[in-house]
Write a structure and sequence with these properties.
The protein is mostly helical. The protein has a single domain, classed as Growth Hormone, Chain: A (Up-down Bundle). It has 23 helices and no strands. The chain has helices spanning 4-11, 16-37, 39-50, 58-85, 88-107, 114-146, 152-160, 162-183, 196-206, 209-213, 215-220, 225-231, 235-245, 250-253, 272-297, 300-311, 320-353, 355-374, 387-401, 404-410, 412-415, 418-447, 458-482. α5 runs antiparallel to α6. It is found in: Membrane. InterPro entries: MFS_dom, MFS_sugar_transport-like, MFS_trans_sf, Sugar_transporter_CS.
Length: 500
């Protein structure tokens, strides 16, 4: 028997609370992108401060990214499971607290010696990754359970699109801080003064401010009606919670007669029955996320070339502030022209053409772009990094976000029953972040030269870029053969325990 409170959620009109939930839930994704994309310009400052006005080694960049991703893997698994066991709301504030405190702690990385600073920064970024990882399954699940079935995809995509604004914010903050410190510095041309050590710490600490501002609203959010009704089996409380946030008459959501006591099915997570019913869905979500993150985080392959040719990061006449400004400016332009449009094109089309089609479109065009860059790379692009190269580079981000980078966040929040939803989203995301770690390690391999670490090796870059195109085609195949469409379906379709 369909519960009235859940049927009302499926057809509820778009209300102010939906947009409020997008902002509150999206701040975790905002912080995630801010802290990831502020690292490249910050590394320019750290290189000039702790490496005698030289660039930091490639391995330092990749390790700082990888250590945060490792924390994300753990956070997704732990918080995803807790979200199903004790409730989404009860652990939602905890993940945000870890993010905010870790962002601040990154700025207070102890010591002034190079090794000590990098080790402490890596430790706090690991904790930051744990908080960010916990936010992924909780934000996606909460938004999916509050939304109606007609616009659910657009709402979850809008939450994820906050990453684009996080990228833009990190770039703007970096440019402003770098400009202010540079303008007040009296150091000789090309020399980075000691006070630059304060600037990169300030940039990191400011990343926690937007998330901290939403903490109160997270704590005031009620538990989702779907969790309360289907997992806790408290339909009366679910109706009362829904009434608090949505303008729906109580007569439409209160049951007309007492419901029979029917405890939820007892088969456990990852049991034979679970895999028989949900194994294909879990495989498709995890595999797609794994493949797209390999490609998405390997985008640094391009940036090493762009920084070397356009930003001229080895220019002895530029200090750390100026180099950080140039890198941040490039990232801001890329976010405005490519990344953010990709997110919002998905928001517009996700409930019109479906998740599967968008994911296949994204994988296909990403593959074509990587082949267009990779096949002639050694013979042409390696010595002709021009506007054409930048357009192709921007298209990889556009079709990643108008494609699998967004849909892999959406689909796991829709495919699984309420008692497994957050856990399965966490598992899928954790497998994806393992792919991201592989991508960052591949960045080290592909960018190293046989004798130097200054310029990318053209032969390795060619092979790596073509392999990324192949990975995209594998993702296309996984999507076509294994991923089920969820557009227009009620989340309760997956609550049917009939073995058929």
């Amino acid at each position: 028997m369909a519960l009235k409170v859940l049927s009302a959620l499926d057809v509820a009109k778009i209300q102010l609370y939906h947009f409020k939930a997008i902002i509150v839930a999206g701040m975790g994704l905002f912080t995630d992108a801010y802290d990831l994309f502020c690292i490249p310009p910050i590394i320019k400052l750290i290189g000039r401060i702790y490496y005698d006005d030289k660039s930091a080694p490639t391995a330092v960049v990749s390790n700082l990214v990888a250590i945060a991703l490792l924390g994300t893997v753990i956070g997704q698994l732990v918080f995803g499971r807790l979200g199903d066991q004790i409730g989404r709301r009860r652990v939602y504030g905890l993940s945000l607290s870890i993010m905010v405190l870790s962002s601040i702690a990154c700025g207070f990385s102890i010591c002034r010696t190079r090794n000590c600073v990098l080790v402490s920064l890596g430790f706090f970024r690991f904790l930051l990754g744990v908080g960010i990882g916990g936010d992924y399954p909780l934000s996606a699940t909460i938004m999916s359970e509050f939304a109606n079935k007609k616009t659910r995809g657009a709402f979850i995509a809008a939450v994820f699109s906050m990453q684009g604004f996080g990228i833009l914010a990190s770039s703007v903050v970096t440019m402003v801080v770098s400009t202010i410190f540079d303008a007040t510095s009296d150091a000789p041309e090309g020399h980075t003064p000691d006070e630059a050590d304060i600037s990169w710490r300030l940039i990191l600490m400011l990343g926690g401010v937007p998330a901290a501002l939403t903490y109160y609203w997270r704590m005031m959010m009620p538990e989702t009606a779907r969790y309360t009704a289907l997992v806790e089996q408290n339909v009366v409380q679910a109706a009362m919670d829904m009434k608090k946030v949505l303008d729906v008459p109580m007569s439409q959501i209160a049951e007309d007669s007492p419901l029979p006591s029917s405890p939820p099915p007892t088969y456990p997570l990852l049991s034979k029955r679970f895999f028989r019913r949900h194994g294909r869905d879990l495989f498709s979500c995890a595999a797609s996320w794994f493949l797209v993150d390999i490609v998405f985080y390997s985008s640094n392959l391009f940036q090493s070339q762009i920084y070397h040719r356009f930003i001229k990061d080895h220019d002895p006449n530029k200090n750390g502030y100026q180099l950080a400004f140039r890198v941040a400016r490039f990232q801001a332009i890329l976010a405005i022209c490519s990344t953010i449009p990709g997110y919002w094109v998905t928001v517009y089309f996700i409930d019109r053409i479906g998740r599967v089609r968008i994911q296949m479109i994204g994988f296909f065009f990403m593959a074509m772009v990587y082949f267009a860059i990779g096949i002639p790379y050694k013979f042409y692009w390696h010595n002709h990094i021009n506007d054409g190269f930048l357009v192709l580079y921007g298209l990889t981000f556009f079709f990643s976000n108008f494609g699998p980078n967004t849909t892999t966040f959406i689909v796991p929040a829709e495919l699984f029953p309420a008692r497994f939803r957050s856990t399965c989203h966490g598992i899928s995301g954790a497998v994806g972040k393992v792919g991201a770690i592989i991508g960052t390690v591949g960045f080290i391999w592909a960018s190293k030269n046989q004798k130097k670490d200054e310029k990318p090796n053209p032969e390795r870059m060619t092979v790596a870029l073509v392999l990324l195109g192949v990975v995209c085609l594998v993702g296309l195949s996984v999507t076509y053969f294994f991923t089920r469409e969820t557009m227009g379906r009620s989340l309760e379709d997956n609550e049917n325990e009939d073995d058929d």
